[in-house]
Design brief:
By secondary structure, the chain is α+β, with helices and mostly antiparallel strands. Helices cover 29% and strands 34% of the residues. Strand 3 and strand 4 form a beta hairpin. Helix 5 (131-138) packs across helix 6 (149-165). Bound molecules: flavin mononucleotide (FMN).
Length: 214
């Protein structure tokens, strides 16, 4: 296994250029540009990221989810507030999002305080989803033990009927969250092992930025 793992290729290139000296002054502009470049280059699901949380006992968990919005309140995602990650964030309101775009040789890390957005924002996120997705979110408590696949499909069929009967129905525990970053870091692989790291740090409502040792 070890030999096989070590023989696996990493970044094949060609890799995009990144000049940290001419980077924008705020990370949202740079993140948006990188996300659009990843989309243009055909990176699958470039809006998927790993969300890391730690609950009150300091146990760390990670899982993939989808970025739903990005605005002045931060990087927005949505989930069930009663899920393990929702419980983690209620107990310890700090989180990290990690995006990885292999074809670009790029990683973005977003880390800071996390907060639940308004009930209206959660409902708007829920209602923007297609009926099948809404039905799936309504079926049961996320991450609780499931007896069988049939149990899920029975619950799904019932939820789908409820969604179709009431297009305004919102899952009771569905919530949108935003990470307001303390820092955002951009990592660019290069073909000469001179990986570039540029970190933006929030300071008194403004951003400072600087390089980090790779
Ligand atoms: C590509 C991808 C996208 C996902 N998007 C979401 C999402 O937007 N919201 C969500 O709650 N779970 C999403 N999931 C499922 C989560 O990874 C996870 O299994 C689930 O939320 C339970 O996590 P928890 O037990 O840590 O709370 C996604 C999974 C994958 C692989």
């Amino acid at each position: 296994m070890r030999q096989w793992l070590r023989a696996l290729p990493t970044f094949a290139g060609p890799l995009p250029e990144f000049d940290p000296g001419s980077a924008p002054t705020d990370p949202i502009t740079l993140f948006t540009a990188w996300l659009r470049e990843a989309t243009g280059a055909g990176v699958p699901m470039p809006h998927a990221a790993v969300l890391s949380t730690a609950g009150d006992r300091g146990r760390v968990s990670g899982r993939t989810l989808i970025l739903r919005d990005l605005h002045e309140r931060g990087w927005v995602f949505a989930t069930q507030s009663t899920s393990p990650k929702g419980q983690d964030m209620a107990a310890n309101p700090y989180a990290a999002l990690t995006f990885f775009w292999p074809a670009m040789g790029r990683q973005v890390r977003v880390q800071g305080g996390v907060g639940r957005l308004s009930a209206e924002a959660g409902a708007a996120d829920f209602l923007a989803r297609p009926p099948g997705s809404r039905a799936a979110c309504l079926t049961g408590a996320q991450s609780q033990p499931l007896g069988s696949r049939q149990e899920y499909w029975d619950a799904y069929a019932q939820s789908l009927a409820e969604v179709e009967a009431d297009p305004d129905l919102v899952a009771p525990h569905w919530a949108a969250y935003a990470i307001r970053p303390e820092w955002v870091e951009f990592w660019q692989a290069t073909t000469d092992r001179g990986q570039i790291r540029l970190r933006y740090t929030a300071a008194d409502g403004a951003w400072t930025s600087g390089l980090r040792w790779p």
